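hi! just following up on the protien thing from before. the input was this:
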Amino acid sequence: MRKILTIATALALSVVGLSACSSGDSASQRATRKAADAAAINDLEVVFHRAMSTKDIDSMMSLYSNDAVFTVGGQSYAGKEQIRKFISTQAGPFKPENHWVSETPAYKIRLTSNGDRGTLYFECHYVDVDSKVVKSSVSADVKVSRVNGRWMFTNVTAAPAVLS
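and the predicted 3d structure came back as:
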């Protein structure tokens, strides 16, 4: 499924690139651009969960803009340095004693895009690899922006997710 999304993203970006060569901005071109933006925003969620599951802090931090804000438990962390410190030292999935896999129910992902701004909502269900028990469930309500041609997290609010 993830490979299909990546291939779809590449195809959509190719079409957008080719469309840019012609004059005008047809409804078809706008729709293609919007689809490419949606795929790129969705890819942020893919990278997020991969980074959480593999404890890859550099990959995780590549998602955040330099001036991003991350809020969890009523505490806000501003800028990449503070966010990196929180994630690498306090976030459950990054703790060395936790061997968790981060999963997300795809049907709960919601995203929007409008020009260079958008939103992304997803849930993280952290499953202990050994016991196969869900250890934590968190929702992420994210504001994203296109920064230097690349979609990035600008504001993230994390809260407990309600399993249903």
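The chain has one domain: 2-160.
The first strand starts at residue 64 and ends at 72.
cheers
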